[in-house]
Fold each of these.
Amino acid sequence: MIGALALSFGAATALPATASPITITNVGITHFEKITLTGGALGGATWNGVYSGQIELMTSGGELGVWCVDLFHDIYLGHQYSATIVALNTDNRDSPAVLTTDQKSRIAAIAAFGNAVLDLRDPKSFDAVTLAAFTADLDRFKADHPADYSMLDTYSSAVSAAVQAAIWEVEYRLTATSADANFGAALTVIKAQASNYFGNIGGHALAIADPAHPNVRVQTQWVSQVPEPSSLLVFAAALVGLAIRYARRVKAI
């Protein structure tokens, strides 16, 4: 199943099929809000009550703060999964659209920006070198935009939801809204500033599979080069983004 998923996501840039799967022992979410999504890849539909925020994956290499890049398949909190490293090339619909270079760059920048803002209190996604670089970028952002930085540093749930929503807006060309004014303010800042401070970040992806739920397709965006797949510690240090669908159904949470 994992190999098939990797092929469907872009076999030309995936690591060899012999790469060892990465074991995810738990899926959680701490900071999130329910938002509304309309337009874009959803066509004329409106999705209400979509859970939006940073996902926490527990692996033997540590806890990873990650982001969703797959709205069209389910993953469940508290479940265990196996994953392989692939490339983020499509938007993961059943009839997937190919992502442009600009889309992939912006997704990576937003994911990095979001993790830097959220994880500096609890740096679960970064090695020391990456953390130092992110800290320097955030210090520059704080100096350039003190009011925006203060807002992002204060409203964790709204910011977490806005980072995720910004990724979906770029990937699916849809519109994300919420009744929370802090969410709207955070979304505006993130879309305006993420690429300014994390614009040169590349990315790859993580395809997640669950034998009990063969429809699951998930990818993860991260900073740095492709890690050696046998080294979960290196993987944990580099990973910064996710691909989980936040199901519209409460039971998926």
Note: The CA atoms of residues 33 and 52 lie 6 Å apart.
Amino acid sequence: MQLDFFPSRTLTIYLAKMFVVRILAVLVMLVLVLMMLDLLSSSGEILAVEGNGQGELLTYAGLRIPQLIQRFLPYSVLLATIITLVTLNQNSEVIAMKAAGLSAHQVLAPLLLTAALVSALSFAFNERVVTSATATLKAWEAAEWGEVPQQSNVKANVYLTDGESILSAASIAGSGDAITMTNVTWYDRSDGGLISEQVRAPRATFANPGWRLENATRFDVAAAQTEQLGELVVGRGLTPGQIDLDTIDPDALSFFELSDSIAAYEAVGRRTSEMRAKWWHKLSGPLSAFLMPLLGAVAAFGLARSGMLFVRALIGMALGFAYFVIDNAALAMGSFGGYPPFLAAWAPFFLFLLVGETVLIRTEE
């Protein structure tokens, strides 16, 4: 009986290399197919803007591909796990390894180690690349695919409240007194909560107090009349500090930047459940790749000639996809306050860790 968790060095390198090649192959295939489908649906809107051409399409692809890699890397690890284990099983290599005295966990150990390294690389990639690409892409979309925003702190599709009235902006750039809003709409609800007038402006800046709408156009709801106003100051109760807090996008912030934002929210007594859940998920999300070899392990064992290999592969895929469904549902519940943030981010991970271990031990150990 071997007490080492890993098999021999040669076998570990052999299995790890096979696994890595299949992860990369599946990931490239998924990203290319999904990117082409995405371009088919988005290229019309991008090219409809005067001056946009092939360069803007390449820019869009460069910003969208990191998001696709982030989302589908765990799926790639799952599919690569099943392909690798099915291949080993069909070639009787699993039987040979078990005949040499290796346990099921030792057979899976090189795959688990590789998946752990993939999780670490995924976390670093998300922090350094995905957050920046997400912020830029959202700001560009809010600018209706016009000029690509050059500022890194641009927020898109922002809604702010001043009492019962609402101030919305397609994008906000800058911070403090230098905040600039574009494509702004002011909904005046001072008359019993109903919208009495709607004011639109292409740009707004801080007027101290309030926000100065430039080239504003007012629509009187009761009279159904439109009036050109020039400049108008609204939202006198909205301060730059409040806007800096209200425009936080967890998906566009790194782990440590989001930590600072959560601390700022808690300092002023604001609700942080949604941000806290996504903060925890920045750790549990990349770590989901570590689970995939364990959930797909059922495809590694059982005789190929028994006719059950295909069924085992389907069971492995079902376990993996069930994890993603439950993980997304738990995160949504955490965002709404239905689950505590820590439970929303980590409960699916530990649940399926136990499920995968139980299936492996009951069937193979």
Note: The chain has a mean pLDDT of 85.
Amino acid sequence: MDADPVAGGMSQAAQRITVAIVDDHPVVVEGVRSWLATEPRLAVVATGDDPDLLRHGAARTAQVILLDLRLHGRMALDQVAELSAAGRRVVVYSEHTEQETILAALDAGAVAFLAKHEGREHCVRTVLAAADDRPYVPPSLAGAFVGDRRSDRPALSDQEREALLLWFQSMSKASVARRMRISEHTVKQYLDRARIKYARAGRPAATKAALLARAIEDGLVRPEEIGTYRSYASTDRPTPQRPS
């Protein structure tokens, strides 16, 4: 994996969100790197075509990894799972946008899924959201989720759905607790209950991104309800209503 000269000196890159790009097509690497270079908060510190090289050099500490799901003719789901288990933030970046593929990547631990045709704006927004542990739903991802209605959709209570929605929007369980006027422990219980219900339905959602995928897929949360991060700790926001 090569150090990226566009990223500049280490002192400059240290103040920005560091990104590693793993793709076996040099033209894609150069294109994505040029997109990310338009955002001053991002610094591409390494590029390459082998996930194993993420263990070395500047890529070893990159805050976000943009990983092509198909490398050298093989799907890289095992690498997604391995990197995610090691605590790395992996954004899967692929031309394979079938719903089964998207959910498999999220179930493997990816924090986000981005289609290669999405373009610069969605690429930059997805990486920024991933670095902040925020969900971001590009159009193709939203379409894949909303396009399916499964009969094994779990029944969530109004409180569980509201806790999920506010957690997806605000990141902090503490701010969700303040908004709902309950304890942080109760918020965690609501989120854990939702995960348990999905696991019992045979559709596990171990990560925040996977849980968001399930909720959107089942119509419990609408993609437009996620949006850009804002604080919802204030008490003047109307309680979210269950979609009809």
Note: The first strand starts at residue 2 and ends at 3.
